[in-house]
Design brief:
mainly alpha, single chain, elongated, nucleotide-binding, aminoacyl-trna synthetase, two-stranded parallel ribbon, Tryptophan--tRNA ligase, Tyrosyl-Transfer RNA Synthetase, ATP-binding, three-stranded parallel β-sheet, Rossmann fold, Trp-tRNA-ligase
Amino acid sequence: MISMINTLTSTHQYMRILTWLQATSDQIHIGNYFWAVKPMLDLADKFKDAEIFMFLAVMHSFNSVQDPIRLRRNGINIIKLYAACGVDLERFLIYNPAEIPGHAQLNWILTCITNMWFMERMHTYKDALDKGKAKEINVWVFCYPILMAADILLYDTDLVPVGKDQKQHVEYARDIAMKFNNAFGETFKIPEPYIKEEVGLIMGIDGRKMSKSYNNFIWLLDDEKTILKRVKQIPTSALTIEEPKNPDECNVYNICKLFLTPEENETLRKRYLAWGLSYKDAKDYLYEKLLAFVLPIQKKYAEISDQEIIDLVNKNTQKVNEMAKKKIEDIYKKVGFSL
């Protein structure tokens, strides 16, 4: 993977990066930002000349969100939030694959050449078996990776940024592409996974991993009153103001450090380790840093209209659809669908 990236960047060859936006929620919390949004912005900055395709995964999200009004709302809001966080809408080609027939067409072809034993290697399926829940999962569990393979292969993708837990999706796409190429001739570019650097655990206000499931998150769109309430809910130890404190054992610090410069972080750590810092002071400082982070995002978000996003996605989808059509024409000829 590294050699491929170095070759592309050193010779200034064309590179296409593909990523996606989930539409399972209409909000992004602090953890989502540091796990997903910031790494994508950093990657775009690292590969300044690359073209970035970003699709709205409404078909994929339909498994868990089957309310049409909510699904549509989620899609629009997530794009607005990514834009408010710094995604360049001129550079990132954001489109809706649900309105591009080529995704479903290629999905069917890839499904037909993929063996069931191959799909049974999936981590999700193995976990269900281990937990005795194999009968509770639906066909989507097996179809999802093949749809992802179609999403990736349809556009001759070079690089797919994923976390370690999603690497298997790219591996499936690679294996399926090689199987197709061997059977029908060179057709698909073999994509490379780009494993995002581990951000580490982002703590929620209760000390567990920040998650909607635990209701321990802070949304980027929370108002000041709600954020203050959430900060006040963070549990602290019984150490007094006169006693030194270990910052790494304090959840107020563990959240606050996400928003600090190296110099600010060092100063705060010294205050913890010395005497004189109360937990009220620490929470006040965290609240100040949270507002400094979310308020500019909220301002930008408020400036973006739903219609602006709809028009942008529709325009991009038409552009991408033309690319998909050409690829499908080539594939149809090779598999014998075109008479």
